Amino acid sequence: MVRAFRGMRKFDKYRENLREHNGEIWSYSTKVAEIKDDGKLHQLGWWSVTTQKHINYAAKELGLELVR
Question: 14: left (phi > 0), else alpha (psi -120 to 50), else beta?
């Protein structure tokens, strides 16, 4: 489940470290992916195992295909 708060979404899992804001996915304080006009989540580079879990989880929760 995703929760919206003042234009920012927090996810139930990874609640403190993962959020979506204005079509951008943030892991800790780093922008790691963007929702593009094609309706897909585009990953911005290669990340640690933990950050990749965040990106994969966000894509699944938002119902978006992940483009690496």
Answer: left
| pLDDT band (50, 70, 90) for residue 2 | low
Question: How many CB atoms neighbour CB 34 within 10 A?
Answer: 16
Q: Residue 49 burial by CB count (10 A; 0-12/13-18/19+): exposed, middle or buried?
A: exposed
Structurally, how many domains does the chain consist of? Answer: 1
* Report field, pTM of the whole predicted structure over 0.70: yes
Q: Which residues form the domain of 43? A: 2-67
Nearest in space to 41 (alpha carbons), one of 27, 50, 5: 27
